[in-house]
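If you are new to this repository, start here. Below is one unmodified record pulled from the training split, so you can see the exact layout before writing a loader.
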Amino acid sequence: MHILISPGEYLLGPVGSRFINVSDRFHRLLTYLQLTPSQRDGGFTKYKSVIACLNAGYRGTSSPTDHARLVGSWGKNTAIRPPRDVDLLFELPWDVYSRFNKRTGNKQTQLLQEVKSLLLKTFPRTDVRGDGQVVCVPFQSYAVEVVPAFRLPAGDYRICDTKEGGRYKTTDSDAEIHHLDASDRASNGNTRDLIRMMKRWQAFCGVPLKSFWIELLAVEFLSTWDYRGKSTVYYDWMVRDFFGYLLRRAFFVMWVPGTIEIVSIGDSWRSRAQTAHDRAVKACEYENNMCPYLAGGEWQKIFDSDIPVG
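And here is the target side for that same chain:
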């Protein structure tokens, strides 16, 4: 009996059973990681209430959508549950930039404090704080993080960085999305799936690896992985091989899409990646030997009970 898993992939007998189990296991993990409708609606409600407040203060309108966009995991469609912060970029008028540019001292801190003061008028019971590049409005369930920004002619943005006396830096959220989209197309949708799974590992195992770094690493890894266009029957190998790739990337330096900024990922995450790789290798061996429950036990050490045992 032959089983068609995806175009060109026919599986036979026990081998087919093995791959069906792997495919089902990771499909169920990814299904569980999806935001629920109520979580998604709650995030958009919070997002819109913050935008309406900012538009009223800076634009004289009550629009809950204008001059703003989702960025971060919500904007890139890589969010998982339980929900994390909702990141939004709010476009300020250029006269605000000119007004603050005439000041002395840390102009970026002063700008974030003004945005904070405006938000406090609408959300007086929230602990609004300005930090680095964002103003955070922590609601009861999760926070909305606002990045005040000035749109540049090329479509990228100038944002605040309060560190080292204050400065402006350039960010290009469209370039970041296009970077992910191109990889997702080339990998049969595997890029975002890999990112979501690695974010679950990051959260469950307390891995000091930023989500944005995970995105860049996933794209880099899949650009050279031999099975990048395959279906979910290869996801056990994808997870295992990503951890192996990650172990070779201590102090790796990466370019931020659309900018000249580079980031170094250090190696504080390495011991946890080594442990995860060892467990993934063992899980793959159990999968190959048709021991699904033993494999599931190893996967749960990486992803918690979000992934089924059998």
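Two things worth knowing about this chain: The longest helix spans residues 37-58. The longest strand covers residues 143-151.
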